[in-house]
Specification:
- By secondary structure, this protein is mainly alpha-helical.
- It is built from ten helices and no strands.
């Protein structure tokens, strides 16, 4: 987490010299991601997202907006809330407006893309990469994927198992019905094949 915090401070320092607010905001964000009900959409997910983003940092048009979108995209999360993405985008404004960050709309746009995980085919690499990295766990080795799947089920523990399985099967099949799970050629090469293997394996286990 220290690496994530240092990156937060370094980027925030470009736009604001209010160090107490920068530190306060980071601590508030960490509190959100360590809420007890989070089993997958937690701090580990954000750290994973951030670390993998460093591999494509030089390919991005607007790294600062990309970084802030990573930080904020799941800051509000509950399985009982149907407006997680909108609420996360609104929370983003509350933090970035005092910092006078000039591209808040771009950050919010990336966050809102995760609501349906669909983008226009002409969207730039930043948009494609953001959605692809958010789904990178799908193309991870099976052990990591199975831990992710277990975490998701735990987050939905208040739903009867038979109903969870029905809903989960629909989600998995929706991914498999797509020609490509990943939007960019870069991440298709990295994750597409393994993601389809993992998704089919989980689907067959339900």
């Amino acid at each position: 987490m220290e690496e994530l915090k240092q990156e937060w401070i370094k980027i925030c320092d470009k736009y604001s010299r209010d160090i107490p607010f920068i530190n306060y905001a980071f601590n508030q964000i960490i509190e959100k991601y360590t809420e007890e009900h989070r089993q997958y959409h937690n701090l580990n997910h954000i750290i994973h997202f951030f670390k993998h983003s460093q591999n494509i940092k030089n390919k991005l048009n607007d790294y600062d907006s990309f970084f802030f979108a990573i930080i904020f995209h799941d800051v509000i999360y509950s399985t009982s809330n149907s407006t997680n993405e909108i609420d996360s985008a609104n929370y983003t404004e509350k933090i970035l407006i005092p910092m006078v960050f000039p591209h808040i709309d771009q950050v919010k746009k990336l966050i809102l893309l995760t609501e349906k995980h669909t983008i226009h085919e002409l969207e730039n690499f930043d948009s494609q990469a953001f959605l692809d990295l958010d789904l990178s766990i799908l193309g991870s080795p099976w052990q990591n994927y199975s831990e992710y799947a277990e975490g998701i089920q735990k987050e939905w523990k208040n739903v009867p198992t038979f109903m969870y399985k029905i809903g989960r099967k629909k989600v998995l099949q929706k991914f498999l019905d797509q020609e490509n799970i990943y939007r960019s050629a870069y991440f298709q090469d990295l994750y597409e094949e393994q993601a389809k293997i993992n998704l089919k394996k989980e689907l067959n286990s339900l």
